[in-house]
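for the recovery benchmark. tokens below, seq after
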């Protein structure tokens, strides 16, 4: 019996090794692509952050941590980090709130045309950012833009939205919210449809009204989805660039200069590629730290227990 058991164990071991080898063989092309186009460039950016290079001279000058020292002493860097934090907070919070409210509304059994409404709300997600930004420029045009036309019809003065230091960032945020809303809504709607109806039936029998059921049942049960959306929202917001580039190029007076725009201007307008690489490293670390903090202190595990 022992000999047969040992033979069986060796057979399973050989089979397991064969499966692993086969799996690695099939994964090899994907691993090569990831290594060449993802991991190698990331490593190259980390290495470049320790050099001074203008992309024109054939040689790079090693300067150690000087790029990072200059970066943390730059008021413009801290301003870009502040603008990015404001953008992240507002866009993530508003899109989460509106997405949840609309998802609850679309989850109503009595609502007609659910597929149509889901498609309409998800359309901004698949709309190219540059195209959406061009529409935003037309909507908020100080002369003939629809927003100012409506304001004037109401007896109010129109604004030069994208050139006003006070209103430029909220205008950019509105585009971010519009684009993020559909994705948030669809995920919340999918999570709502997976919730057991027993919770709501029991609460209704106990006399809980609609608002109480929403606050004490729906919101806690959707905690894991909310955490995931917060993490994705923060990552997406810290990487925002294209809509700012099209709408304001970081102006006026750096009021909309997010950290991605700050990195672009230093790297490809001022040709400070080593300095720009240092900014990219900081962006990478900020996003990674925030994600690890979410997993450590809020965590998908504890969120899953709520469900």
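predicted aa per position
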């Amino acid at each position: 019996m022992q000999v047969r058991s040992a033979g069986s164990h060796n057979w399973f071991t050989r089979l397991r090794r064969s499966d692993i080898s086969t799996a690695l063989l099939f994964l090899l092309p994907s691993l090569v692509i990831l290594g060449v186009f993802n991991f190698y460039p990331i490593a190259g950016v980390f290495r470049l952050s320790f050099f001074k290079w203008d992309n024109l001279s054939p040689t790079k000058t090693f300067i150690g941590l000087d790029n990072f020292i200059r970066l943390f002493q730059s008021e413009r860097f801290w301003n870009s980090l502040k603008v990015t934090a404001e953008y992240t907070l507002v866009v993530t919070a508003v899109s989460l709130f509106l997405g949840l409210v609309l998802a609850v509304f679309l989850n109503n059994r009595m609502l007609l045309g659910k597929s149509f409404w889901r498609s309409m709300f998800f359309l901004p997600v698949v709309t190219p950012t540059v195209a959406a930004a061009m529409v935003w420029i037309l909507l908020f045009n100080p002369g003939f833009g629809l927003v100012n036309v409506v304001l004037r019809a109401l007896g109010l003065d129109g604004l030069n939205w994208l050139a006003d230091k006070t209103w430029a960032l909220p205008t950019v945020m509105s585009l971010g919210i519009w684009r993020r809303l559909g994705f948030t809504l669809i995920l919340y709607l999918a999570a709502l449809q997976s919730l057991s109806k027993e919770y709501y039936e029991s609460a209704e029998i106990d006399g809980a009204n609609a608002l109480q059921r929403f606050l004490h049942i729906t919101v806690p049960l959707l905690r894991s989805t909310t955490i995931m959306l917060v993490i994705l929202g923060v990552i997406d917001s810290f990487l925002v660039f294209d809509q700012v580039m099209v709408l304001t190029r970081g102006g006026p007076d750096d009021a909309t200069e997010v950290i991605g725009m700050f990195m672009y201007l230093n790297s490809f307008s001022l040709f400070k590629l080593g300095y720009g690489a240092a900014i990219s490293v900081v962006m990478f670390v900020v996003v990674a730290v925030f994600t690890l903090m979410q997993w450590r202190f809020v965590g998908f595990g504890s969120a899953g227990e709520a469900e």
